[in-house]
Amino acid sequence: MIPRCPACRERLFQVTEGVIKLRTNILIFKADGVGTLIKCPRCKADVPLDLQLGSELRKALAVPERKLVLRKTLDLPESAK
């Protein structure tokens, strides 16, 4: 049985030659990486999906911390040589 949107009953997956394809372009991962939603292509309703990001992908998608960059200034013109 292919899951359908609970709001409009649109098919969310397509099975072709043993390959399962998601019929939407929008995946929404919650900040903790545990919960996932997909947008229905017809009615745009949020549909929960039992999918989790692996730890490596969660780490890669994390926002990097801002780094403080200090520029060294030269005290004497001779030291630049």
How are the secondary structure elements laid out?
Layout: E1 13-16, E2 19-22, E3 27-29, E4 36-39, E5 46-49, H1 55-61
Structure commentary:
- The chain is mainly beta and 81 residues long.
- It has a domain at 1-53.
- The protein has one helix spanning 55-61; strands at residues 13-16, 19-22, 27-29, 36-39, 46-49.
- The strands form 2 sheets. It has a 3-stranded antiparallel β-sheet, with no helix packed on it. A two-stranded antiparallel sheet has the order 1-2.
- A hairpin with a 2-residue loop joins β1 (13-16) and β2.
- The longest helix is centred in the C-terminal third of the chain and has 7 residues, at 55-61.
- It is elongated, with a radius of gyration of 24 Å.
- The model has no long low-confidence stretch (mean pLDDT 81).
Kindly report the spatial arrangement of strands forming the biggest sheet.
3-4-5
What is the ordering of alpha helices and beta strands?
EEEEEH
Count of helices? Answer: 1
Count the strands? 5
Mean pLDDT over the residues: 81
Instruction: Quickly give the structural class.
Output: mainly beta
Shape: elongated
For the CA atoms, what is the radius of gyration?
24 Å
What share of the residues lie within helices?
under 10%
* Biggest sheet details: 3 strands, antiparallel
Roughly what fraction of the amino acids lie in strands?
A: 15-25%
> Termini distance?
75 Å
Low-confidence stretches: none
